[in-house]
Amino acid sequence: MTHHFRFTGRSAAFSLSLVLGFAAAVPARAVEEGGETYREAFAGKFLVGAALGRAVIEGRAPGVQGLAARQFNAVTAENDMKWENLQPEEGRFEFEVADALVDFAAANGMQVTGHVLLWHQQTPDWVFEDEHGDPVGREPLLERLETHIRTVAGRYRGRVHGWDVVNEALNEDGSLRDSAWLRILGPDYIAQAFRMAHEAAPEARLIYNDYNLYQPDKRAGAVRLVRELKAQGVPIHAVGMQAHYGLTHPEDMADVARSIEAFAASGVDVEITELDLAVLPFPEGSDRGADLDENFALQEKLDPYRAGLPEDVAALQAARYAELFGFFLDHADKVSRVTFWGVTDAGSWKNNWPMVGRTDYPLTFDRQGRPKPAFHAIIERVRAGN
Ligand code: XIL
To answer: What is the DSSP string of 22-66?
Structure first.
């Protein structure tokens, strides 16, 4: 089973713990109390979605597919539309799992966001190397990018409704991240990728996606980027705010609303693309974002809730979730989708990042797939109206 999980540069323990993360089964009968659903509660406001990991897509996480289909009207592949999974070797495309996700979405009336066409992570080394293992030149790399985007976005034309075209191109100070894409192609690689995506899937919504976009400096960088792209006539329709948050960050939650307003003012919609709200502390030295390169050794004192989520912590989390959804609802004319990064706490990536093997509770359904206080607080917030 572990061979299904491929993580560039990650340890076997990491994939093993992910597999074990799904061992706690969601009972097939776990229908949400009161029959409340995100789909229905947020109808007419914005789409509410979830990322589905491979175990969910392949039906190996009991009950989770049903829960997802009842609750959500949007899905994203947590890993299975990333380059390392779609084109692990040059010219060898593997679409099986991605196809299954797209079929699941169609069968359940869900919109699909493709994640992701260009990123510096989870992209195989061959992409950036020539036949001698040296850095590949600009022209061949552009050709590889074009082939990848044309093949992938073209295959799902009309079935994947939006694409995260470029992910995480910015540093915390708002400048362009030093990645192989930037080094080899130069700063216009972003414009190139959006143009290629538009060519391959002209109806798709095209998204620039990043983490920590609530931070003023990074927000300013993203606004500059969007304005430059639009000034050049590049098709870009939304900024995706990943929104991997916690109990103490964003420190000023209103920064989230300020970013939504700033992006809307630069002429694009906002999609909340990867929402979760971790209850575990970040280790000293972390950027508190979502940089996959961070990988801290397990510290037991930073894993305090192995036996269960204390009620007061669940209540604090619920209050923060409700506050966030308040901002999203206040800006429902600008926010077109809010997607959680996972369905249940059991399957969340936060159990293994930035530290492998912790027990986190970042989502709104518990390890058995039952709604948490956060779910009820969010539903109450939308029922209360604006
Ligand atoms: C994460 C997945 O959730 C993990 O399963 C995987 O091991 C690493 O990637 N930002 C992104 C997502 O854009 O693709 C990342 O997803 C989380 C951070």
So the answer is: T-SPPPTT-PPGGG--HHHHTTTT-EEEEEE-HHHHTT-STTHHH
At 6, the pLDDT band (50, 70, 90 cuts) reads very low
63: left (phi over 0), alpha (psi -120 to 50) or beta: left
Choose one of 15, 341, 363 to mutate for the ligand 1 pocket test, by most ligand atoms within 8 angstroms of C-beta: 341
Residue 310: strand, helix, or coil: coil
The DSSP line for 355-374 is: BTT-----SSB-TTSPBPHH
Cα separation of 214 and 8, whole Å? 28
Ligand 1: centre distance to CA 53 (Å): 10
Confirm whether 274 is a catalytic residue.
Answer: yes
pLDDT at residue 75, as a whole number: 98
The architecture CATH gives domain 12-383: Alpha-Beta Barrel (3.20)
pLDDT in tens, 345-382: 999 999 999 999 999 999 999 999 999 999 999 999 99
- To test the pocket of ligand 1, the residue of 292, 345, 360, 363 to mutate (highest count of ligand atoms within 8 Å of its CB) is 292
Q: Catalytic one among 78, 168, 203, 228?
A: 168
Name the closest-CA residue to atom 3, ligand 1.
349
Ligand 1 atom nearest to CA at 211: 10
Q: Is 273 helix (H, G, I), strand (E, B) or coil?
A: strand
Pocket of ligand 1 contains residue 78 by CB under 6 Å: yes
CA pair distance 64, 111, nearest whole angstrom: 18
Q: What percent of the chain has pLDDT over 90?
A: 90
Query: How far does residue 174's CA lie from ligand 1's centre (Å)?
Result: 21
Find the Cα–Cα–Cα–Cα dihedral 24, 30, 34, 37, rounded to 10°: 70
Residue whose CA lies nearest to ligand 1 atom number 5: 349
Quick check: is 271 catalytic?
Answer: no
pTM: 0.93
Domain spans of the chain, in order of start: 12-383
